[in-house]
C-alpha cells in the first residue's frame, strides 16, 4: 500500500493555525489540485466551525490525499466529524500547535486503540492518565 501511494503521488494535507501551516508549506507539502483546491487550510479565531468541517470533508473525499494532519485544538472543534471518519485512508493525525500542547486523552486514534491494547501499551505514547 505504501509503495502504491508513493507511485501515485499521494499528498499530506494540513488543517491548522498559521504557524503550523507555514511550517509544513516551507517543508514542501503545498499543492493545488486540478480544480485549484489547496491541500491546506489556515484556521484562525474568526474561522467558522462549519468552514473547518467542510474543508475536512473535502480532504476526506479527495483521492489524492492519504494523510490529514490537524491541530488537536482544531480537531476538538470538529470532533463529531472526525469521529465519523472510520476508513484508514486518509489517516487523520492530531498534532500539537505552538500554543496548545498535545493531550493524549483527546486523541481520537488513541481512544480507538484503547479497546485493542492494554493501558501499559499506551503509556509509551504519554497516555498514563488516560481515562476517556
Structure description:
The chain is α/β, with parallel strands linked by helices and 132 residues long. The protein has a 4-stranded parallel sheet, sandwiched between helices. The longest helix is centred in the middle third of the chain and has 13 residues, at 49-61. The chain is 39% helix and 16% strand.
Summarize the structure.
This is V-type proton ATPase subunit F. This protein is of the alpha/beta class.
Topology:
Elements: H1 2-8, E1 11-16, H2 18-26, E2 40-42, H3 49-61, E3 65-71, H4 72-77, H5 79-84, E4 91-95, H6 108-114, H7 119-122
Parallel strand pairs: 1-2, 1-3, 3-4
Q: Detail the poorly predicted runs.
A: 1-6
Q: Report mean pLDDT, rounded to a whole number.
A: 84
Instruction: Provide the helix percentage.
Output: 25-40%
**SSE-based structural type:** alpha/beta
- Strands of the widest sheet, in order across it, are 2-1-3-4
Backbone CA Rg: 15 Å
The amount of beta strand, in percent, is 15-25%
Give the strand tally.
4
Spatial gap, N to C terminus: 32 Å
Figure out the total of helices. 7
- Mass-distribution shape: globular
Largest sheet: 4 strands, parallel
What is the N-to-C order of secondary-structure elements (H for helix, E for strand)?
Answer: HEHEHEHHEHH
Family: Belongs to the V-ATPase F subunit family.
Keywords: Hydrogen ion transport, Ion transport, Transport
Protein name: V-type proton ATPase subunit F
Pfam families: ATP-synt_F (PF01990)
Can you tag this structure with a few keywords?
132 residues; alpha/beta; four-stranded parallel beta sheet; 7 helices; globular; disordered N terminus; ion transport
Amino acid at each position: 500500500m505504501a509503495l502504491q501511494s508513493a507511485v501515485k503521488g499521494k499528498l499530506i494535507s494540513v488543517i491548522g493555525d498559521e504557524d503550523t501551516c507555514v511550517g509544513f508549506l516551507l517543508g514542501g507539502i503545498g499543492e493545488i489540485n486540478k480544480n485549484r483546491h489547496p491541500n491546506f487550510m489556515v484556521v484562525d479565531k474568526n474561522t467558522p466551525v462549519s468552514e473547518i468541517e467542510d474543508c475536512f470533508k473535502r480532504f476526506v473525499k479527495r483521492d489524492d490525499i492519504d494523510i490529514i494532519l490537524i491541530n488537536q485544538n482544531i480537531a476538538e472543534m470538529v470532533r463529531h466529524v472526525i469521529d465519523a471518519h472510520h476508513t484508514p485512508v486518509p489517516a487523520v493525525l492530531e498534532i500539537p500547535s505552538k500554543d496548545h500542547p498535545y493531550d493524549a486523552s483527546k486523541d481520537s486514534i488513541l481512544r480507538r486503540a484503547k479497546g485493542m491494547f492494554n493501558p501499559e501499551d499506551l503509556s509509551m505514547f504519554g497516555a498514563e492518565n488516560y481515562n476517556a
